[in-house]
Amino acid sequence: MTSRERILRALNHQIPDRVPIHDSPWGATVRRWHKEGLPEDTTPAEFFGYEFEYFGADTSPRFPVRVIEKNEEYIITTTPQGGKRKNHRDYSTTPEIIDWPVKTKDDWKEIKKLLKPDWTRVDWASGLARNKAAYEEGKFCVFSGGYGYDILQGYMKSEQLLITMVEDPDWVKEMIMTLAELTLVMADLMIRNGFKFDGAFMFNDMGYRNGLLFSPDTYMKTHYEADKIVYEYFHSKGMKTLLHSCGNVKELIPILIEVGLDCLQPLEVKAGMDLIELKEKYGDKLSFMGGIDVRLMADPDPSKIEEEIKRKFEVAKKNGGYIYHSDHSIPNTISFQQYSYVIELVKKYGVYSEYEEIEKHEKEKIVIKEEKIEKPEITEKKEKRGIFGKKAKQKKEEISVEAKKEETEVKKEKKKFSLFGIFRKKKQK
User: Fold this and answer.
1) Do 33 and 46 sit in the same domain of this protein?
2) Which pLDDT tens digit goes with each residue over 258-309?
3) Is residue 178 part of a domain?
4) Could you tell me the CA-to-CA distances from 116 to 58, 121, 183, 184, 419 in Å, in that order?
5) Which domain holds residue 81?
6) Beta-carbon count within 10 A of 427 CB
7) What are the φ/ψ torsions at residue 340 (nearest 5 degrees)?
8) For the sheet containing 322-323, what is the strand order?
């Protein structure tokens, strides 16, 4: 079974051969692992068999990134959004934004001028070749991007952004819609020119340890319409929708299901996102990815992480609908040996013993179905033709009419998701 087949079965709430595997180690973690046994010329994805491949477009205003200051511990740079950020030299933590480009509506108007779609936002040279190779290998290929609150934090200070979401939700909605439309236009451009995707992996952190960063009501006023259109678009392309949203986002789950979300990730344990509870409550409507506590991976007692995986897998993998991932990402406190043991446990407890029996029954059904199909009798019919081929001409005219009908339908479908008019409101009568 390929990764694509395995993940699609999980997302369709069907039984795969085993739980699909993916994860997100920090750069600092990978450097540590290379010193501890991970071959130097091998990535964790290759070594552990991760099953997703991510592709995207640059949807920033593309300001030049330059180093402002650096010392032995920190580095300060400008950002593609036009702000400034401070990071550890080993990039082992989330960067700290220390200046923002949008402080007024006029600032946003200037930024917006730079958020136009064009071909140079995509890595056509190596990106398209990598996509083709990954797709042929059977990986689950996703378009990856973001356009909501999480992305806006790169443009506006978090405190100001949260206040603005309450005091002027229409402005925040307009910013989100602008970024969402650019995201969709670029995704459509990539799809029309060779990229193949099985899903869309969006990211938008909307929670923290104790709950949502803003209320469901505020979400409805600022995010709902964009999410609805984005998910509908990807579904129209036959793609599954996945969302990375950190923190405790329990309150939003019913709305996310309503707008068309297929899978929620990463289910942070320390924020109260309990995989078993969520599976039992929403498992028939939503798939889950993550929820395995990274703190237990680093514990010197290996029985703790084994109990974590065994206990949660027993519930989470029932009837499909679950993909393994840590409950956020893999920090450099976890050794290569500890993580290797985690993947061993995932493979051990992630097996679906009933899969072979299910596959056998499915094959039997296909055989029975094929046997029941009766081949129609083929009788040769000669068409009477006029001396000057009038019959043939009539046939051509009929084909021409049918072709025009098909062309009209295609135009209607294009209009439905018009690239530059996706978010235009219908004119009031």
Assistant:
1) yes
2) 999 999 999 999 999 999 999 999 999 999 999 999 999 999 999 999 999 9
3) yes
4) 11, 10, 10, 12, 12
5) 63-100
6) 5
7) -60, -40
8) 52-55, 140-145, 199-203, 240-244, 263-265, 287-289, 322-323
